[in-house]
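**Archive record**
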Amino acid sequence: MRTLDDLLAEGVDGRRVLVRADLNVPLDGARITDDGRVRASLPTLRKLTEAGARVVVTAHLGRPKGAPDPKYSLRPVAARLGELLGTTVPLAADLTGPSARSTVDDLAPGAVALLENVRFDPRETSKDAAERTDLADELAALVEPSGAFVSDGFGVVHRKQTSVYEIAHRLPAYAGDLVLAELTVLRRLTGDPDRPYVVVLGGSKVSDKLAVIDALLPKVDRLLVGGGMCFTFLAAQGHGVGDSLLEADMVDTCKRLLGDAGGKILLPTDVVVADDFSAEANTRVVTADAIPDGWKGLDIGPDTVRAFAGALADARTVFWNGPMGVFELAPFAEGTRGVAMAIADSEAFSVVGGGDSAAAVRQLGLPDDGFSHISTGGGASLEFLEGKELPGVSVLEGS
């Protein structure tokens, strides 16, 4: 796999370099609520600009329907990226049209421009390889004749999409520093991790995490389950879960997992329940086998936090993916905070698996440096741990 350092050794002064970044940040209107992914893109961009490259960044935001949609414009991202880089980052009004061409033509050595949301073009995510290739040809034309491609959006390398996969066949392709860092960390988890190896899983649905549970269960020493997914496991133990999130069609699967686990799976012993999904709801802490009818579990309870902290205390390797409760609402944030602090306080090599977990770390005011690595790719991280091939990685390995 050729790397960014290989490209820099070849020389990029004055050359146009197309960078696929992951800038899919959460927004509240036009305000970025967590700029972690923007910050994570900076090291690769700075290396290129300091070497004199004319850097053209492509990225997506949200899930537009293959057409321009103002609420998914990358305009707020361009503004924040410019603030962090200490320069103006112009945003082309289109992806490969007149605005993109003029914006790229105007780039000076050491400057950065951002193309508008790549998913505004339906060919980016098309199932037709010929359509994706057509778009790749247009993107490549923006940086030719001496252009190169740097893949630095780890959060999308599990997608076989134009700006991730086809473009790497069209231009000389290199892995950016972020992609390399993510792969190094995940290979450490899947190789021979220091033990005890503890995995903490949360989030809404068992079905979203089933494949990774199946893949990890034989390899881990303990698997701690919280979040909305824990209630399907509690139902599998025969407990009523009130109005809590429940995947009824997954109860038998959870019974199987509990049977296969040999005691490795730890479930909540108490939960915070509420009579409404609201920060103003009435709440109480109940044991996990006594959730009242009409109430819903929205966080793990204090006894569970202490038990999970105890299970993490001697860990040497930790992977955490998914919050323990609805951390966005203050009454239901303490479970996630407590478990995150236990991970940070441990001496383990600790990996936060991206997505909501990374957002929770920042929203709850926990220090990034309390963890060995905070991933930018939730879905990509899980698929790697499942043992799946990541198209955006395999194409770089074959380049």
User: Anything to note?
Assistant: The chain is about 40% helix and 15% strand.
